[in-house]
TrEMBL record:
<keyword id="KW-0813">Transport</keyword>
<dbReference type="InterPro" id="IPR027417">
    <property type="entry name" value="P-loop_NTPase"/>
</dbReference>
<keyword id="KW-1003">Cell membrane</keyword>
<dbReference type="InterPro" id="IPR050388">
    <property type="entry name" value="ABC_Ni/Peptide_Import"/>
</dbReference>
<comment type="similarity">
    <text>Belongs to the ABC transporter superfamily.</text>
</comment>
<feature type="domain" description="ABC transporter">
    <location>
        <begin position="5"/>
        <end position="242"/>
    </location>
</feature>
<keyword id="KW-0067">ATP-binding</keyword>
<dbReference type="GO" id="GO:0005886">
    <property type="term" value="C:plasma membrane"/>
</dbReference>
<dbReference type="InterPro" id="IPR017871">
    <property type="entry name" value="ABC_transporter-like_CS"/>
</dbReference>
<protein>
    <submittedName>
        <fullName>Peptide/nickel transport system ATP-binding protein</fullName>
    </submittedName>
</protein>
<dbReference type="GO" id="GO:0005524">
    <property type="term" value="F:ATP binding"/>
</dbReference>
<keyword id="KW-0472">Membrane</keyword>
<dbReference type="GO" id="GO:0016887">
    <property type="term" value="F:ATP hydrolysis activity"/>
</dbReference>
<keyword id="KW-0547">Nucleotide-binding</keyword>
<dbReference type="Pfam" id="PF00005">
    <property type="entry name" value="ABC_tran"/>
</dbReference>
<dbReference type="InterPro" id="IPR003439">
    <property type="entry name" value="ABC_transporter-like_ATP-bd"/>
</dbReference>
<feature type="domain" description="ABC transporter">
    <location>
        <begin position="262"/>
        <end position="470"/>
    </location>
</feature>
Length: 471
């Protein structure tokens, strides 16, 4: 049994609280180890502690050994690249935004392994071809899909030959096909090395197999083989985490639809000369929940933006049956921090909305209560609350304006299952109560089937693929 990483009694503390409490684990060659838990459970801090890159203001106690040798954080940094590498949550955080794909990897061969320029280019070309990335060599990260960007980040992380890989939420925000591809790529790393994966996705943990440690609030609540933990969990929290998967949700009875809000006829849209969808026709009713399903790149966000008037269609038309003000056609973004300024408190940002649109500040407290939010959160900035809390505040901000159409663009793809279930339930409840049409964009078909009145399968482009419960 070859122990690659061994941790004993690791604790991570801030000035006021313990974030990870007395954690111990062992990563063995050939056996994947997955840390499973909700947002804020301390999983990513564990990865940062192993790498020796904990944020300022946090202290770490306990023993961390690599290949059986106890090391300080400074000593572990000398292992970066050749022996130990980390795949961060967002591939764009580890890729140079102004460097072509080929150079992202070639730089590792030159700087870490001291390859000549020609040898580095040859090794890079071979590696990118093996990963199905031969066509992205001259593209920038912003020109890549999420799956391609993550594979490129994997290529750069493993180019120097690291046997120990730490993957922090490697499939967050990816559709099912891309997620499964990244999982298989990671599993291949365990044959001659070790893989420590941090995730909130139960499906990813199941595919990886090996062993699982379930964390909550910085503590281990359960651990064991993947098969035993995921099929016969003993801890109440693990049971709750698994039960939050959409396949276990209660089916919602489709609403009877009466008053039309808008009608879409023979709509078509292109991007960079590629047809995304065509001959698309459907009706949206007040208070209706519509699912928009398809893989990444099929045009889901484009259709949402077209309905909101942010893009003009290539052909076809959208007929509104009432004069709806612009501020009542709103969007809930996939990545909550991208829609909030970190330079001001959340209270200030909400006050700006109230003042701009002549609303009443008294509307905020009941919405906070309905969305299960503490008023004290509003004194913080967007960087100082969790992703789930920030997405609920984004929903509160939208509900203040009594929207008639709300486009929710993958609103839960970056959230853990428990938080995701809460967000979807709150979204549907708010839309029903305010008679707001909700366009729910997702690559999770099961989730959509559980809550939607109709589903549009966009990749098929045609009206025949609209499952409509309102005819």
């Amino acid at each position: 049994m070859n122990e690659l990483i061994s941790i004993k009694n690791l604790s991570i503390r801030s000035a006021s609280e313990t974030l990870v409490d007395s954690l111990s684990l062992t990563l063995i060659q050939g056996e994947p180890l997955t840390i499973l838990g909700e947002t804020g459970s301390g999983k990513s801090l564990l990865a940062q502690a192993i790498m020796g890159i904990l944020p300022a203001g946090l202290s770490c106690q306990g023993d961390i050994a690599l290949n059986g040798q106890r090391m300080t954080a400074k000593e572990r940094r000398h292992y970066w690249g050749r022996h130990l590498s980390m795949l961060p949550q967002e591939p764009w955080q580890s890729l140079d935004p102004v460097m072509q794909g080929r150079e992202q990897v070639a730089e590792v061969y030159r700087e870490v392994l001291a390859y000549s320029a020609a040898a580095a280019q040859k090794a890079t070309q071979t590696q990118l071809q093996q990963l199905g990335l031969a066509d992205i060599q001259h593209k920038l990260p912003s020109q890549l899909s999420g799956g391609m960007a993550q594979r490129l980040a994997f290529a750069a992380a493993t180019a120097a030959g690291a046997r120990m890989i730490i993957a922090d939420e490697p499939t967050k925000g990816l559709d099912t096909g891309q997620r499964d591809g990244i999982v298989q790529l990671l599993k291949s790393q365990t044959e001659n090395g070790g893989l420590l994966t941090i995730t909130h996705d139960v499906a990813v943990a199941q595919q990886l197999g090996g062993r699982i440690i379930v964390m909550r609030h910085g503590k281990v609540v359960e651990q064991g083989s993947a098969s035993s933990v995921l099929t016969t969990p003993t801890a109440a929290y693990t049971q709750e985490l698994i039960a939050a998967a959409p396949c276990y949700w209660t089916d919602v009875t489709p609403q009877q639809c009466h008053q039309p809000l808008l009608t879409v006829r023979d709509l078509a849209q292109q991007r960079n000369g590629k047809t995304l969808f065509r001959h698309l026709s459907f009706i949206v009713h007040h208070g209706e929940i519509i699912g928009l399903y398809g893989d990444s790149g099929c045009g889901k966000s484009t259709l949402g933006n077209t309905l909101l008037g942010l893009l003009a269609p290539n052909s076809g038309n959208i007929e509104w049956h009432a004069d709806i003000p612009r501020h009542q056609k709103l969007k809930l973004y996939q990545d909550p921090p991208s829609s909030f300024s970190p330079a001001a408190s959340l209270q200030t940002l909400l006050a700006d909305v109230v003042r701009r649109h002549g609303l009443q500040a008294q509307q905020i407290p009941p919405l906070l209560q309905a969305l299960m939010l503490s008023p004290s959160l509003l004194t913080r900035s967007s960087h100082d609350v969790s992703g789930g809390e920030l997405q609920r505040i984004a929903l509160l901000r939208a509900m203040l304006l009594s929207p008639k159409l709300l486009v929710a663009d993958e609103p839960t793809s970056r959230l853990d299952p428990i938080t995701a279930k809460q967000i979807i339930q709150l979204l549907v409840k708010a839309a029903r109560q305010q008679q707001c049409a909700l366009l729910l964009i997702s690559h999770d078909e099961t989730q959509l089937k559980k809550v939607c009145d109709q589903i549009i399968y966009l990749q098929d482009y045609a009206r025949e693929n609209v499952i409509n419960h309102c005819d």
